Structures are given as structure tokens and as C-alpha cells.
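Input sequence (382 aa), recorded before submission:
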Amino acid sequence: MKFIDEYRGAPEAQQFLRAIERLVTRPWTLMEICGGQTHTLVKSGLDRLLPPAVRLVHGPGCPVCVTPLELIDRALALAARPEVLFTSFGDMLRVPGSTTDLLSVKAAGGDVRIVYSPLDAVKLAQKYPEREVVFFAVGFETTAPANAMAVYYAKQLGLTNFSILCAHVLVPPAMVALLSAPATQIQGFLAAGHVCAIMGYHEYLPIAAQYRVPIVVTGFEPLDLLQGIYMTIAQLERGTWSVENQYARAVTLAGNQHAQRLMAEVFAVRDRQWRGIGLIPQSGLGLREPFAAYDAEVKFQVSAITAPESPLCIAGLIMQGRARPSDCTAFGTRCTPEQPLGAPMVSSEGACAAYYQYGRGADFSLPLAALPQQDATNLPER
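Predicted structure, C-alpha cell format:
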């Protein structure tokens, strides 16, 4: 792989911006699925530098943000139990539940620990056989193989004090749900490159064909995103709808088939609730019967815990591309990183966090004429 800085060059970015401006003949609305892509776009200001006719909306690609409130409350209930050693990645600790968060449970005496791999949680279960170790398994297809391996390995070791609280969700069903909505304005997608590195992009072919939308698998650096936008707009202007791979340095059509086989052995596809969005059929993963003993919801009987969403938080509208964070009346006032109403304000991939961190209290576009003149005849090959 080339050095990352080679995907951040200002002259090359200006070339892509000029080319996009020359290409566009009418308004288009594109959605980037991944929250990491949202942060790159906002941090680098690319969304402001694009021609006004190109409108970017933010998708539900932040796994922390779409984890439903009821699952957060179940995690809080587990973490507060004296026999439980609750483990999680750090990005879940400040996500608000109905009344508190994991960091507060930890401060109150709960044994809540940050781990950097689910296998770290397995090692803790080996080290403390008298404790019940629970790992909060959150994520899209990107993190599912590692979480599947943790469960598989725990079973191989014969551990009976390890389990996971599974909150895995899948990207393609969410895209179908967004495109099927009556008021959808999405005309093209930038697909998440890391998800496709695991799953490939063959799953997107029928979606592009059925809904007649171009889908471009895109990386996470500024030039990746600009090239992905250029490729998507080029298809829209031609009137075509196919799946293209901008992120060829990391993604293939078939993906990582070893990881896919492990996921299929450990997990089964299930219906899943998405925070702020609702139930999306066949959009999540749950443990298969041979691994049912490692399901923390069943083991500790917390499945009955439910919770209503905050009426003040419009995270669902934001993740469906129907609103921006700055459209929320609570943004930056009643909802801040210190006192969040919803997960998108505290997640490292949340759209609200990006807008708050980079000072986007109001949306505006910088005229493309403000950029230095640059020849866009020969676009850089990435």
C-alpha cells in the first residue's frame, strides 16, 4: 500500500473538484454509508468544496450509533452485576442509555474494562474463571469475523464463563431499507471499503440493478472519497447503475472468504432493531444454536429490557439522510459530547460528533471559484 499522505494531496484534490464541477449538469444526492467517511469529508471540508449541485447526506454507517437503546440498557444491566466483568471497545463507554452510561457504571464500582480485541476478553475469562466475562460485540461485517473467532475459540477452550452481547448489523439490508422508503432522495451510494474488504461487493450488484442506483466502493482518505464521488456522478450523468470498486488496493469482488466462512459457522442472519430507525428484517447477526451458550442475553435473561428513544434526538432522521446534525434543535445546546442525547454525538464515527468537532453549527458551501485554478484534464490515478 502507498503512504497515506499520497491520498491527501491538495493539488490532486483540486483536480478532482474541478472535474466534478465540469461533469455535473443537474443536482444529485449521494449518501456515504460509513461514519469514518463522514468524518473525513467534514474534517477535510470536502463537502463544502463540492459544487452546490452535489449534495452529500450521511448514512447509518456508525455501528455505535445504530445500536438500539434497549441493547445499551441491557449492557448497563450486565455491567452492574457483581459477578460480571464487562468488556468493550472504548467507543461504547460514553454512549447514553436511558439513564446512564457504561463509564458511569464503572465509576460506581462496576467492573467495566476496555479491550482492544475480543480475544483479550477471552484471555480475561481464562485468567478469572470465577468471574463471568461478557464482551459487547458491536459492529458491522468489519468486526464480525474477530468476534466470531472469540466465540469459536472460547468453545474450543471449553470456557463456560465467557459470553457476548451481540449487536452486529449488516450493510446491504440497511441500504435496501433506505432505498425502499417512500420519500428517499438517495441517487447513489459510496459504499464502505472496510466492510467490502471482508464481504466483497457481490452483494451490492442486485441492489444497484433493482433500484437503479450506482454504488461505488470507496476508501477513507480525501482522494479516495473525491474519486468515489467522481465515479458515482459520472454514472448518474450517463444514466447507468453499476457497482464499481474505487478501493481496489484493499477490496476484491469476492472479499475475504475465510472470514466469511467463520462468520457463517458462528452467526446466523436475524432481524435487528436499529437505533432511531426501527426494525430492519434480516439486517443483523445472532449466534447459531451450537454457540447459544455464549449468548449473554439468554444466559443472564436480560432480553426483556426495553427502552423508548429520546423524543428530542433526531439521530434516526440523520442516519437515514433525511436531516443533518445542524437541523436538530438540541445540537450544541441540550446535546453536546459532555451531555449527549444520542450516540452520534459521542461516537468517533457519529455525524453529530463530526459536525460538533469541526464547527458545523450551520451548513454552507464554499464557492468552487475560491479554489486556485488547476487543470483537470488528466485526473490522478489512485
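Checked by second reader. Confidence is low (pLDDT under 50) at residues 362-382.
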